[in-house]
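Dear support,

I submitted the protein below through the web form. The confirmation email said the job was done, but the results page showed an empty box. After a refresh the structure appeared. I'm attaching both so you can tell me whether what I see now is the final result or a partial one.
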Amino acid sequence: MSFLPNEPGPLLHLQNVLGMPLWQPAGPNGFADTADVWASPEAMKLRLDVSWQMAQRFREVGHPLGVLDTITGLAASRETRDAMDHAESRQQALALLFMSPEFQRR
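What the results page shows now:
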């Protein structure tokens, strides 16, 4: 199962929106990983919006829990599985996957 789109432009745009343009970190140490960058309300809202947009683009992939297993393997928590299992739609389950701590750490 492939998650790569035929045209990467839209995903590269989302990466730019997140402030992480491909191959262009702000400094030699890469992108910042401090709490002020990742845990602010604005940053979390932005990642939620991007996760929803990604879920719309990947609507046709397999079952969301199968996607979870493929992407995170054994790292998937019971909480993430339960949230995705109780999602109201496939798209919502995928958005929850993309917002999950397991996915965000990848």
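Response: this is the final, complete result; the empty box was a page-load delay. DSSP finds seven helices and no strands in the chain.
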